Amino acid sequence: MSLVHWRNHINGQWVDSDQHLTILNPASNQPVATIAQACIADAECALQAARRCADSGELIAVRPARRVTWLLEIARQIRLVADDGAHLLCAENGKTFNDARDEFIEAARYFEYYAGMADKIEGISVPLGNGYMDFTLYEPMGVSLQIVPWNFPVSICARSLAPALAAGNAVVIKSPELSPLGLCILMQAIERAGLPTGAVNLLCGRGREVGAYLAGHKHVDQIVFTGSVPTGQSILRAAAENAVPSVMELGGKSAALVFADADREQLLSSVRSGIFFNAGQVCSALSRLLVERSIYDEVVEQVASLANSLHIGPGAENAELTPVISAGQLHGIQAMCRRAQEQGARVVAGGDAVSGLSGNYMQPTVFCDVTPEMEIASQEVFGPVLAILPFDTEEQAIGLANGTDFGLVAGVFTQDLNRALRCARRLRAGQVFVNEWFAGGIETPFGGVGLSGYGREKGQEALYSYVRTKNLAVRIQGE
Ligand code: NAD
């Protein structure tokens, strides 16, 4: 049976290319579909199309209410394709069908949320005394380049695409090579909403070739990158050539502080989603559990038995632990687990790949006796691997939590509100959860400090990354 072939979307057309990529199902490593692999010429066409659209004023000269209707129509179209899109995303990405469907629904929510802001991007008037009138305008950046990772391609893409369009930018999206198909379905939904030609362009191409070319291009006015630290750093170097502002959403090694009075049920349900959801391939995963010593042994045992109880299997069967994205990713995770043991960490659950299954399955893994200088305590694994460390005092817990180069999210589990708020203030992270991991939503600003990046996505605040301020200072004659 021949595979379905997908193409890039450039200047309002679906465009093929000479080279194709084969997309594999992580649950079997069998091919799912092929996709056109964009080349430099495709990237150039996409940027030219976005530039023409941005410069034509078609997105910004209209009444803002027009952009509201475009975004709401995109949301409606996404909801219509959510089931079909979820089947494809589940097959190419390995995640469960339900989680894949949630991604499409979340994507629709981003468009609804930012539709509500598209006609409220209001400047201020600045009093300068008689003889002057002064006010500010928020103008779109122009062309927004959005480079998307494979772990939540559809919702992460919508997270930056929706505010960019709400503010009147034209966009070029660089989809991830390992999981680009769900974005083709998203693009089909966008196409049906009837935006001006060139407003949204979608390219699937090699990062180091096409991604790097795009990042250094003079037609790009703003970059939103979500992905790994080394790639983010190389994009920043390219962006520096043209002094292009950027939003960087990078990795994490996020810690939860667990005090002896923590509600155990809340904690275990947070650990379950925090590190095992999406096979741990979540930038804001709960990858370090810092536990007060008086309950340390008990919590280690409970978390180990939780990990051992998870049903491992394909996303299509909505298993509790799904495969990781690729064989390469699996090997990297295995290697980190081996090094953790060599450095003295003790495995209490998992520790290796699952044998006897043909896909990229990693056992849900829990390490205890972890010390801060071990690699497993400070470096991102991006897999279902948890490190548990003990602490004796609140001060020590904060020091451990803040002791890596990252600072994406953090959590505090305690019944003592004063302690929770005290710790939350001192935690070096862009978002702090109290008593529930992933407690935020599309309404809550999200982003990192340190090597986790800068700029904020989600919430009202994110919109202002997609505009620049212009001040109009007017001298009034005769006043
Ligand atoms: P990655 O950095 O390998 O790739 C991300 C994207 O960048 C892909 O589209 C890739 O093709 C492109 N790319 C690669 N090299 C490039 C280059 N030189 N120039 C331009 N583009 C290039 O990351 P990944 O493996 O897809 O994703 C995993 C990483 O992403 C993890 O570190 C994770 O923590 C991070 N992440 C962060 C967030 C967040 O919001 N903070 C969300 C999801 C993932």
Please tell me about this protein's structure.
The chain has 14 helices and 20 strands. The protein has 479 residues and is α/β, with parallel strands linked by helices. Helix 1 (40-56) packs parallel to helix 6 and helix 2 (64-93) runs antiparallel to helix 3. Nicotinamide-adenine-dinucleotide binds next to helix 6 and helix 7. Pfam families: Aldedh. InterPro entries: Ald_DH/histidinol_DH, Ald_DH_C, Ald_DH_CS_CYS, Ald_DH_CS_GLU, Ald_DH_N, Aldehyde_DH_dom. Belongs to the aldehyde dehydrogenase family. GO terms for molecular function: oxidoreductase activity, acting on the aldehyde or oxo group of donors, NAD or NADP as acceptor.
Keywords:
single chain, oxidoreductase activity, acting on the aldehyde or oxo group of donors, NAD or NADP as acceptor, binds nicotinamide-adenine-dinucleotide, Ald_DH_N, Ald_DH_CS_GLU, oxidoreductase, alpha/beta, Aldehyde Dehydrogenase, Chain A, domain 2, Ald_DH_C
